[in-house]
Amino acid sequence: MHPLNLPAFEVKTRQNDCGQTEIYDRLRRRYVALTPEEWVRQHFTNYLIVHLHYPPGLLANEVSLNVNGARRRCDSVLYDRNGGRPRLIVEYKAPDVRITQHVFNQISSYNSVLRADYLIVTNGLEHYILHLDYARQTAHYLPAVPDFADLV
Q1: What stretches of 16-103 adopt beta strand conformation (E)?
Q2: CA 34: distance to chain centroid?
Q3: pLDDT at residue 152 greater than cutoff 80
Q4: What mean pLDDT comes out for the span 38-44?
Q5: How confident is the model at residue 146 (pLDDT cuts 50, 70, 90)?
Q6: Using CA atoms, how far apart are residues 120 and 54, in angstroms rounded to an integer?
Q7: Any idea where the domains of the chain sit in the sequence?
Q8: DSSP state, 47?
Q9: Which of 35, 52, 104, 107 could cross-link 91 (Cys pair, CB 3.0–4.6 Å)?
Q10: DSSP 106-130
């Protein structure tokens, strides 16, 4: 798989009965098809948990939601400890997919339902982190993903 701009970790993979490679998703607690996007997801969630201290019990992958009557899946969501409201959502792309306005439109449509405080878009090479302040009606990009303890 493609090298990423994320810390390496010991990846668990296996071959399924059809000979396809699968990777273990620690949040879903099962093996899933190893695609380039999934490679990014597993590295990024490992980065959040191991390096930035995000509690795995507050993170979820492939969260279903309804956006204007259409069923969609948000790649990853971090929930608040108190009340379980979404705090952060992440949209993953394969390393060879450029981060364009279309990707930001996609995560914005998810956030129209979830109203998270942080939006992250990454292809494993480039990471964009946006902090939204609904009270002040402002948004600004952060230079790096904040540690869990530093989330506002």
Answers
A1: 21-25, 30-33, 59-67, 70-79, 86-92
A2: 16
A3: no
A4: 97
A5: very high
A6: 14
A7: 35-146
A8: I
A9: 107
A10: HHHHHHHHH--SEEEEE-SS-EEEE
The owner of tokens 């959040």 is 48
- Which residue in the block uniquely carries the two structure tokens 């069923």? 71
Instruction: Give the list of residues 6+ apart from residue 141 with CB closer than 8 angstroms, or none.
Output: 128, 129, 130, 131
Contact of 135 with 106, CB cutoff 8 Å: no
Residue 103, token pair as written in the block:
């990707």
Instruction: Report phi then psi at 63, rounded to 5.
Output: -90, 120
Q: Quote the tokens at residue 40.
A: 């990014």
Q: What type of residue is 41?
A: R
Number of residues written out for the chain? 152
Mean pLDDT of 91-112: 95
